[in-house]
Amino acid sequence: MKNGILIWGAGAIGGVLGAYWARAGQSVTMVDIVADHVTACRTEGLKIEGPVEEFTQVVDAVLPEELAGTYSCVVLAVKAQATAAAVASILPHLREDGFILSAQNGLNEKMIADLAGAHRTMGAFVNYGADWIEPGRILFGNRGAVVVGEIDNVIRERTERMHKLLQIFEPDAVLTDDIWGYLWGKMGYGAMLFATALTSDSMTANFADLERGPALMGLAREVMRTAVAEGVIPKPFNGFEPKAFMPDAADASALKSLADLADFNSRTAKTHTGIYRDLAVRKRKTEVDQQLGVIVEIAAGHGVDTPLLRRLIELIHDIEEGRRDMSVSTFHELTRVMS
Questions:
Q1: Is the pLDDT of residue 2 over 60?
Q2: pLDDT, position 268
Q3: 133: Cα within 13 Å, side-chain hemisphere
């Protein structure tokens, strides 16, 4: 990629991409706010661990205040709540003909487009499993869907170049003219993943528990109704089948998708979500407001009611602020909404 690749955020998502690209000979610079992690990446190297592949790769890394120069390709891989501040820091280093690719969870492309310009914003969907373990160490738990596309659905030469870059990491990466379909599909799945973080159980255990099925199905249905109201047809991936959660779909179809998701997640070394790790391990705020809160706002604008999503946001906040424990009984506060 012209002028090299700048990755803003060298954690679970950005770190894995950076290590793979640097190993393949691409010119990569990673920016991160954790000084020990930056030092490890550029000296001993970033260690990628897990069942997919294990290797250590030195990657050029700097703290934000150390960054110099301008770039045409910037991959944004920070938590959703850090998007606005990150984009503000990126803009002085973004060439006028460059773009920011959002390799995040959520619909952050909307905010990036507002701040950097729609013409300098590209969308991506990533579903591979990874966890930041400690400075210089990232667990790469499993492969998953990787998709890239423009937010105006027009495939350009730059989109094709980005697709080729992503294929270095994920040979099955998809180039799409409907990135919003994938992003909204991920939001349906993501709502259920937030619910799994209400307990200390694995993702697989949550999806396989038939008693939790109604609440999980209800969450996905609220997101799918909102997507349809937005004029988006969500895309399937890795066991999540959007059609199974549409208003006219039978429960049997939704249960089949939950079973497929349980199977998909049973084959990863990443047993719990990043949301769970934020709550139980890193003791920090989650992305719930920037992901699910945004969906609730969009839904309200279309007159779509989202009682389960609203309750889930409240429960996540309760855990963040120490008012509730992570437990099955906390999960079933969602089930009560449906009774």
A1: no
A2: 94
A3: 17
Query: For domain 181-337, which CATH number applies: 3.40.30.10, 1.10.1040.10, 2.40.10.10, 3.30.390.30?
Result: 1.10.1040.10
pTM of the entire predicted model: 0.95
Could you report the per-residue pLDDT of 115-159, keeping only the tens digit for each? 999 999 999 999 999 999 999 999 999 999 999 999 999 999 999
pLDDT of residue 205 exceeding 80: yes
pLDDT score of 35? 98
5-177 sits in which CATH class?
alpha beta
Domain ranges of the chain: 5-177, 181-337
